[in-house]
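Course assignment 3, question 2. Fill in each field.
Student: A.L.
Task: Predict the tertiary structure for the chain below.
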Amino acid sequence: MGKPRLYVLYGAVVWKVAEEWRQQGAAPVGSWWLHLLLLFAARGFTYQFWFSYGNMLFFTRRRRVVPDSVDFRQVDAEWDWDNFLLLQTLIGATLVGSPAVARQQLLLPSLKQAWDPRGWAIALLLHVLVAEPLFYWAHRALHRAPLFSRYHAAHHHASVTTPLTAGFGTPLESLLLTVVMGVPLAGAFLMGVGSVGLVYGHVLLFDFLRSMGYSNVEVISPRVFQAVPLLRYLIYTPTYLSLHHREKDSNFCLFMPVFDLLGGTLNHMSWELQKEVYLGKNDQAPDFVFLAHVVDIMASMHVPFVLRSCSSTPFANHFVLLPFWPVAFGFMLLMWCCSKTFLVSSYRLRGNLHQMWTVPRYGFQYFIPAAKKGINEQIELAILRADRMGVKVLSLAALNKNEALNGGGTLFVNKHPELRVRVVHGNTLTAAVILNEIPSNVKDVFLTGATSKLGRAIALYLCRKKIRVLMLTLSSERFLKIQREAPAEFQQYLVQVTKYQPAQNCKTWLVGKWLSPREQRWAPAGTHFHQFVVPPIIGFRRDCTYGKLAAMRLPKDVQGLGYCEYTMERGVVHACHAGGVVHFLEGWEHHEVGAIDVDRIDVVWKAALKHGLTPA
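Answer field:
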């Protein structure tokens, strides 16, 4: 059953709340039906909070238990992670609506009691004496044949845990957790000391500890355990849980390792490893860095630490993100004032760590003259930081290599000639991707953005193939400069045009400059628009086809990739990103900045294919 249809099951609960609201003429604050919905939202927020925190690599990178990232396979496996929340809420609704429960008045009187310390004491006692040992022995049983393969193996499908992994399991596991969590509450209510505060407090604390343990980030300082040694047997840690997921033969407890100690299943390496993780001994410097920037406010929410259901699919303006727009706008202002380049995501390729860093600037800011200096300072600091860390190659994305901003990266290379990190704009592969999309039987093309860095390279390459290039530019000086770069026998294939009319019969348009609907009308029916303009043009013509931005699919042996790069499909990255990857894999020692070397277009293309990158 799909998740939207599962949420429809909540219709009855919502209807009950609406009915009580109508009858009372005000919000039914004393309604258990309302509390069920509020508790469901609060629980979801708890898991989302820890998920976001765990994936804020700029905060947590040094304290990650398992340094690897979650891949798309794990994302898809855990897609319906909140099924257990739906199940438990529906079980709660069944109890609230049960005539037997109503007759015994087990729940309704407790609404008048917001807080009762006796209930908390009983719940704590039952948790320690009943819930913890029940979970421990049931969990050990689930790790024995044939129960493990049938009911628990899926929960151990990945070595990298996240708070969403905590909710991923079979219905049997969800029911077990429901019983374990419900025993202390049931005991308190049966003894007449239950309260609304107990329900919220116990359930949210239960979820808080579960998601903390699965967060894959150490949050408890080893000094705490050194100061109070007994505490290590009363509260587990993310390292403790991660060892269980990896070894599968120890650390079975719910929250309290004392039960592993009593049961003889305690992994005594738990706290030594926890100390190493907390002190950052798992941290590793990247080998390759792709330096991106934020596109716009909506795209700023397309990151792994916001909503995984969005970031693991190509970017789109999801309606669920609209309520968060004011928050994202506030973060934009904050980053503009006091932020620096930060780590967003990572993956591994052939044993090497690749990371994506982001300059805290948005697309529109690159066109503000007063912001130019600050943006270059941000990029320069990122390059120098990468150099200190021992990064081999740093690739500049989109506007970070803008010619008017820093000469395609030449500003930094000239200013710091001693750089060991190789700075790459990746435009050589971008040009190669665009050129290899053009059918071999094409005789003429129409080129906008003709005097740009990419436009120049494309024009010079095509004229050598005896393809006539209609170069749209008002600057005769720039056109003639490019034309003179071509061998004399091929210069005739470069033709300057100043209007769109000459392209009325050309069905191959290479778009390096934004086209309005009116300008697109000059293209004949059947035209294909190849694009290297950022952002891409909007397809207004139904009788034409529109290509996507130049991109390459990463090799099949990439590991830990679970994030879609902007509008790219899964496993696909922008060509400038891929160009940096090829530069790194080839071990080239030169910087790739400034003008594109036309003679290297085919060299870079063949190198990309050799290393397993494929056209997207």
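Instructor remarks: The longest helix spans residues 117-142. The CA atoms of residues 234 and 435 lie 63 Å apart.
Grade: pending
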